[in-house]
Amino acid sequence: MSEKRSFTTIENQWITLKDGTRLAARIWMPDGAEADPVPAVFEFLPYRKRDGTSPRDESTYPVFAEARIAGVRVDIRGSGESDGVIDGEYTELELANACELIAWIAEQPWSNGSVGMMGISWGGFNCLQVAALRPPALKAVISIASTVDRYNDDIHYKNGCHLAAQLGWASTMLAYQSRSPDPAIVGDAWRAMWLERLEKEPYFLEEWLSHQRRDAFWKHGSICEDFSAVEIPALVIAGWADGYRNTPLRAVEGLGEKAKALIGPWVHKYPHFAWPKPRADFLGEAIRWWNRWLRDEDNGAESLPQVRAYITEAIRPAPRRDFDPGQWIAKETWKTPETLELSVASDGSLVKGAPAKDGDARDVYHRSPLDTGTMSGEYFTLKPDAEMAVDQRVDDAGSLVFETDVLKTGVDILGRASLTVEVACDADWANLCARLVDVHPDGTAYRVAFGVLNLAHRQSYEFPEAMPRGEKVEITLLLDTCGYSFKPGHKIRLSLSTSYWPMILPAPFDPGLTFDTASLSFKLPLLGEHEKTNVEEPENPDPLPKYIEQAPGASRRHVMRDLQAGVTHYHIYDDSGLSEHPQTGLATRQIRDETWSITTNDHLSSVGEAVWTCDMSRPGWFIRTVCRTKLACTDTEWLLTASVAAFEDEEQIFERVFEKRIPRDFM
Q1: 339-529 CATH pick, 2.40.10.10, 3.40.30.10, 2.60.120.330, 2.60.120.260
Q2: Rounded distance, CA 202 to CA 198, Å?
Q3: HEC string of 105-136?
Q4: Contact, 636 vs 664, CB < 8 A?
């Protein structure tokens, strides 16, 4: 890193768009930038710069500013202190606003005219989407935990299956958008702005469930529709412990030399403070990237290996994973991996080699218990605890399982495993989940990767077809990307289930599936030619700022099986604790209380309910919003209800109720 320089933090800068909307920005400005202009990095989010993302912003942008790179963190309209009301995810308006903001940044007297855009999750999504629009001043992006395919690799659907995270995320966004701007910034207008949001904010789940196929709604913002639209360099980062693990390699495959991939062991966090360790010096990586593309510094960033990945090994799922064993490898050029093909022998074991083409059918019928999947963890992981998948033996007990003999030599993989098998279904469709599992010598089972498929989507996500009842159909299911080393003495297991609840919501049918195990081919992507490499860890092992803790937080995950009633409950409780920002005096707290339940003999009984309670306060000022959401179903409809209640100084001042029935799209 270059010599550190001083900077100034501008707590709030109003930027007025052409339509008159004022957006709120927090800017970290290198001193002397007007005399010696600097590049800028822009991040555009709905997650509230004043309180929501302030810890991570304050661990990142000051370091950029010390390296003479300005940081511009802007709240999307209707969030934080920005005017207006949000209109959805990654909308045309949002992306147009981003392009306008990039032009504004480039025109400032302190700017050298070159802008980078970055972010994690929402910000990682929209920086790739904005890059595809080619605003002239945007020269490079860094995208973390994002997607190039909004339908298959986001929090809504996965290969035609409904992710329960849709409810969780819609509840999160309802809670975030229902919160007030800070009166210390917007003044007396805060209450009118707050009431406008409460009255007009959308409930995102209504829109998401209205698009159950991969239609134009999901194609919008999916840069995989036309990778050639992105002409600037992209550093794409993800973690194996997160749901957004497919994007780095898909970006490299689609963008070619313009993209560099970095994949570590992490949850859904920036790599310089993520778990499990080892971490990566994200700030050093980013500064090198920005200096190369925003100020044309000859530092070799363009010569980085196309793929750097941490290959994990012998992971033991536990209540908490602080460190994952493994090693960093590099591939100068990413190529389609060679594969190790496994098939099912007559005794049911997994063996090397392709299935016999002319062998007799070996049909096996299987229908998983409806609560198979409670060990799956969450799709969207923020902590290295039970949010990640735990020991798979409970779920494997409800699955059709095939495994190898004890390995005599290791097997190293990087890429996407694929399952091809002939199946028959006595309904229009069913869900299928496939899991790649590392079985330790003591029987501990670690989920390396998984994939799911709505069988009606076996040929097309846009134009699905009903299964031909009772007839065998060959299907191919791709598992998520993984990088893993199976060690000698371990076994490789393939687990197949027709349920993966609550991560995947049940289909409107529960017919079970008949598998022709003689046709089964399971291909593992071999690591192949590579070099060992080193990814530097951050100098500061604890970079997040410390706020004043007024009340501690808490996190719990419970599974309760009522054996008499035949009901399984999955309970999630997260309390952020009450913390006060030492400079602004703003204290905030968010509590998520979410429960899923299912009656184990009724596939239409799955119900999800979430309650979000959000508090904001200063001496003499207190507001609270309580958002309640519920998702249930019949065989033909999704049943949505939600409400938002707002309180000022303990008095309820507002309530709004959402209620909608949305037809289930069988095909």
Answers
A1: 2.60.120.260
A2: 9
A3: HHHCCCEEEEEEEEEECHHHHHHHHHHHHCCC
A4: yes
**CATH 2.60.120.260 residue ranges for the chain:** 339-529
Q: Report phi then psi at 569, rounded to 5.
A: -115, 140
Is the model's pLDDT at 231 over the cut of 60?
A: yes
CB proximity list for 75: less than 8 A, separation 6 or greater:
23, 24, 25, 45, 46, 48, 49, 81, 82
7-160+212-305: which CATH number, 3.40.50.2030, 3.40.50.1820, 3.40.50.300, 3.40.50.970?
A: 3.40.50.1820
- Give how far Cα 600 sits from Cα of 60, 155, 224, 510, 635, Å: 47, 25, 39, 11, 16
Cβ pair 79, 176 in contact under 8 A: yes
Residue 667 has pLDDT above 90, yes or no: no
Separation CA 371–CA 511 (nearest Å): 15
CA distances from 307 to 117, 217, 329, 414, 448 (A): 21, 31, 8, 11, 20
d(CA 438, CA 489): 11
Q: What is the pLDDT of residues 320-348, one digit of tens each?
A: 999 999 999 999 999 999 999 999 999 99
> Rg of the Cα trace of the chain?
25
Instruction: Summarize the chain as % helix, strand, coil (round to 5).
Output: 20, 40, 45
Name the E strands within 488-553: 491-497, 513-525, 531-532, 548-551
Range(s) of the chain covered by CATH 3.40.50.1820: 7-160+212-305
Residue 311 and residue 448 in contact, taking contact as beta carbons nearer than 8 Å: no
Which of 415, 435, 388 is CA-nearest to residue 482?
415
Task: For residue 176, give every residue at least 6 positions away whose Cβ sits within 8 Å of its Cβ, in sequence order, or none.
Answer: 46, 47, 48, 52, 79, 614
Percent of the chain with pLDDT over 70: 99
CA atoms of 285 and 211, how far apart (whole Å): 38
Q: How far apart are CA 636 and CA 570, in angstroms?
A: 24
For residue 48, with 0-12 CB atoms within 10 Å meaning exposed, 13-18 middle and 19 or more buried, which class applies?
buried
Regarding pTM above 0.90, the answer is yes
Residue 358 confidence (pLDDT) above 90: no
At residue 422, the 3 state secondary structure works out as strand
Cα dist from 233 to 230, 244, 352, 492, whole Å: 8, 20, 40, 38
Summarised one tens digit per residue, pLDDT across range 394-406 is 999 999 999 999 9
- The pair of structure tokens assigned to 190 is 């805060």
Measured distance CA(29)–CA(33) in Å, rounded: 7
CB distance 631 to 205 below 8 Å: yes
Asked if residues 31 and 7 have their Cβ atoms less than 8 Å apart, the reply is yes
